Amino acid sequence: MTELRDPNPDPTVAPVASADALPVLTRRARRMQAEGGPGTQAAPAWGDEEEEPTSPWRVALEWGGFVVAAILIAFVVKTLVFAVFYIPSGSMEPTLAISDRIAVSKLSYRLHDVHRGDIVVFEAPEGTRTAEIKDLVKRVIGLPGDEIEGHDGGIFINGQLLDQPWLPPGVQTDTFACETEYEGQPGCIAGRVPEGTYFVMGDNRGSSLDSRTFGPIHEDWIVGRAFLTIWPVTRIGFIGPSYTLWVIVGVAVIISGFVGSSVWSRRRRRREPAPR
């Protein structure tokens, strides 16, 4: 394109840069500013700016949000995920001792079926409930549809002797049969555990109030599966298979990810340079 010039320029008027030259001048000015040219100051590198003082109200608001979130998470965990129970009797000895405190997963049976050998906490049946005891803890022995009976010191499921690795060697079980009725409550049907119910027993066979007394328990009574002894310190450990550990890990990852992302976002906002 041909450049037009004024044939008689006025020497008192400063020349004006054309529109085509503005980008060049802009880039040159930016380069001079970055290199610290005459009359300019080098632009600070990203993250080198002095952090602006944070308002105490903003800090209080952020920490208040963390506290509220922690309370909500604790409430959800206690209500829907885990619960802690105290062992008041020796009916589950030697697996669980008096004064033990156990963690119970409320999610387990939302993810999988009840397994034989699981230790479950359930609502105490009528006739066993007191002001102090509203829940019981026992081991699942008979599953729905099982034919169950005890004789010759052992327990037989569908005619086969049940292997009970959770009991100390030499423990004997008194003879019993699954009755059709327990104090007005329905029991077994022709010696079989009805659908939707479970036959539970304490590991301390000689001193346990269990399904031999009050019959099979309904699945709706089950609070959750005991998976961890948390107190006393000398007895801390997992109870049975530790697959509930993955639930704990998942919850911990979610919580740590939430807190970590919040902290990182706050730090990043502080370090980002203001628009120039």
Describe the overall structure.
By secondary structure, the protein is α+β, with helices and mostly antiparallel strands. The chain has a domain at about 85-255: Ribbon (Umud Fragment, subunit A), CATH 2.10.109. The chain contains five helices and 14 strands. Strands 1, 2, 3, 4, 11, 12, 13 and 14 form an eight-stranded antiparallel beta sheet that branches. The radius of gyration is 36 Å and the shape is elongated. It starts with about 20 loop residues before the first helix and ends in a 5-residue tail after the last helix. Residues about 20-25 have low confidence and may be disordered.
Brief rundown of the structure:
The protein has helices spanning 22-35, 56-81, 108-111, 211-214, 245-271, and strands at residues 82-86, 101-105, 119-123, 135-142, 148-151, 154-157, 160-161, 176-177, 181-182, 185-186, 197-201, 217-218, 222-231, 237-238.
